[in-house]
Amino acid sequence: MERNIYPKSNNTKDNSPIKWVERVSYLMDESLKIPGTNFRFGLDPILNLIPIVGDISGFAVSGMLVLTMAKKGVSNKVIVLMVLNIVLDFVIGAIPIIGNIFDFTYKANSRNIKLLKEHYSENKHQGSGKNIVAIILVVLVIVLIALVYGLIRVTEWVINMF
Fold it and tell me: Is 7 a member of any domain?
């Protein structure tokens, strides 16, 4: 029997959004299994085989899961980590071929359920998440600078060819 790790409530329907999030996460990331193996995947990587529509639908479902948990009062740090998982899944998943392979192995929704369980059962991931956002912004600025530098170097190389 599974122990309920989520916040207690007098309302019996109060935990239903959390159970709904777990069910949808399982459907999107782990509902199917390759026979003879332990490898599991869900509808998300299958939907993502359809260009644009699949990526957007998976992103929308994952976003709804995060919004549901935000309404349940999860800490801002958990929300930031969950959104980071979803954005990473969406961005890399949008790359042709590499993204399709990535979608079968990186299960953002399952990772988000793990974050929720750690938050509620082990009291992890408390706080605002501002440090995570700051680190992400610094990394993005560094990547942007590297891309601009690379673009300038390629442009110089092309110009010098003529």
Answer: no
